[in-house]
TrEMBL record:
Gene name, Swiss-Prot/TrEMBL: murA_2
Subcellular location: Cytoplasm
Name of the protein: UDP-N-acetylglucosamine 1-carboxyvinyltransferase
Lineage, highest ranks first: Bacteria, Bacillati, Bacillota, Bacilli, Lactobacillales
Sites bearing 2-(S-cysteinyl)pyruvic acid O-phosphothioketal, chain numbering: C116
E.C. code: 2.5.1.7
Pathway field: Cell wall biogenesis; peptidoglycan biosynthesis
Annotated source species: Streptococcus macacae NCTC 11558
Length: 420
């Protein structure tokens, strides 16, 4: 089992470039099933979720060429073969294959999705949308069969009871080639939704309103090929900005869209973090005194649930008491016990996390319990005195491309070893 080893306490300096957005590319790839021609994606991050999706697409019959950050996919050989398990269970985003296969073939037999343990992660809203569009649902062992029984998928008026990124995107994908108009009300507004809509529209779809809470899709018969640049990963960007504020002595984070991080940056400014924001980069100066703040996550454009864990080590450096409430995943707290092992004064109290600072962290053997918890432990390890050993690092490698190289370029003493 591989581990990350960090000798902490070293000041970091220099420049780090953010890669393409994981939560966009994991939807863009299955969406390409809808095309009747070749689609090329640029700015694809080097993360294991992309590798898993390439394996699944290839198994289904697509031909895929992966060259650095460029992914060229010809979906014309894709068959609607059952995909009951295997890589499908390795990531939550495999649910996008329901939308892609249903949109193209009117049928999908796909295993139930996997993903990080953040507490219950139902897909009822996805299924409610597919049923509204005429698909029936049955279960076959580990897999779920969605089928329109030979009828075309039809447009529908769908109200999302909960704001859901996945259900919004999945419905948009399936509706792109449905017969008629689909309206999604109470849609999620994340930038990744706009990115998927941009790809689909450039393939010939008619989607309006992506990024607002009402999205309208006029279904079309065919979708053609295109070339698309994946948007920067706002969660990776926020993770590096937190590292820069926690242990940096002047770090420039590049390939950042400020407008994707406004609530995050405003919280850092409230703490007293000094930053210079340019068009596509943020320079973070060395920090001395920081003020403890409280954080409540909410759907975009609110404070992202995916950033409450990566910002926590920085919060631990601040003076005073603060709390964190994740209104999207209340159980997204598994990093707290690991940080406490490093000497942090942090604990879970009911549905919130309470912390008291400032804290001097000490290196320890800790384990990543999910992707963003892992990012928090890397940051804590960089801040801590002594050596930190992080296990279960496959979680981290799912969402942070070239993280070891990027941090070493900033001066970090970090490496991956083959553990026992
Ligand atoms: C996406 O997950 C992201 N993953 C998550 O990022 C992110 O935390 C989440 O959106 C919220 O922003 C990907 O995009 C691959 P949701 P998703 O549907 O789509 C409930 C990371 O770290 N819900 O927006 O699965 C759900 O339980 C990952 O990169 C239903 O009740 O999240 C949650 O409480 C972790 N029924 C809320 O909605 C459904 O059918 C928001 O979930 C679907 C969701």
């Amino acid at each position: 089992m591989r581990k990350i080893i960090i000798n902490g306490g070293r000041p970091l300096k220099g420049e780090v470039a953010v890669s393409g957005a994981k939560n966009s590319v994991v939807a863009l790839i299955p969406a390409i099933i809808l095309a009747d021609d070749v689609v090329t994606l640029d700015g694809v991050p080097a993360i294991s979720d992309v590798e898993s999706l390439i394996d699944i697409m290839t198994l289904m019959g697509a031909s895929v060429d992966h060259d650095g950050e460029t992914l060229t996919i010809d979906p014309r050989g894709v068959k609607d073969i059952p995909m009951p398990y295997g890589k499908i269970n390795s990531l939550r985003a495999s649910y996008y294959f329901y939308g892609g296969l249903l949109g193209r073939f009117g049928q999908a037999v796909v295993g139930l999705p996997g993903g990080c343990d953040l507490g219950p992660r139902p897909i009822d809203l996805h299924l409610k949308a597919f049923e509204a569009m005429g698909a029936s649902i049955s279960y076959e062992g580990e897999a779920m069969r969605l089928s329109t029984k030979g009828q075309p998928l039809k447009g529908a008026h769908i109200y999302m009871d909960t704001v859901s990124v996945g259900a919004t995107i999945n419905t948009m994908i399936a509706a792109s080639r449905a017969k008629g108009r689909t309206v999604i009300e109470n849609a999620a507004r994340e930038p990744e939704i706009i990115d998927v809509a941009t790809l689909l529209n450039n393939m010939g779809a008619h989607i309006r309103g992506a990024g607002t809470d009402i999205i309208t899709i006029e279904g079309v018969e065919k979708l053609h090929g295109t070339r698309h640049q994946v948007i920067p990963d706002r969660i990776e960007a926020g993770s590096y900005i937190a590292i820069a504020a926690a242990i940096g002595e002047g770090i420039k984070v590049t390939n950042v869209l400020y407008e994707h991080l406004e609530s995050f940056i405003s919280k850092l400014e409230e703490m007293g973090v000094r930053m210079t924001v340019d068009e596509d980069s943020i320079f973070v100066e060395k920090q001395d005194k920081l003020k403890a703040v409280s954080i409540k996550t909410s759907p975009y454009p609110g404070f992202a649930t995916d950033l409450q864990q990566p910002i926590t080590p920085l919060l631990l450096k601040a003076e005073g008491r603060g709390n964190i409430r994740d209104t999207i995943y209340e159980k997204r707290i598994n990093h707290v016990a690991e940080l406490a092992r490093m000497g942090a004064h942090i604990s879970v109290l009911g549905s919130q996390i309470i912390y008291d600072g400032p804290n001097d962290l000490t290196g320890a053997a800790v384990k990543a319990t999910d992707l963003r918890a892992g990012a928090a432990l890397v940051t804590a390890g960089l801040m801590a005195k002594g050596t930190t050993e992080i296990s279960n690092i496959e979680f981290i490698l799912r969402g942070y491309s070239d993280i070891i190289e990027k941090l070493r370029n900033l001066g970090a003493d970090i490496k991956i070893i083959e553990g026992d």
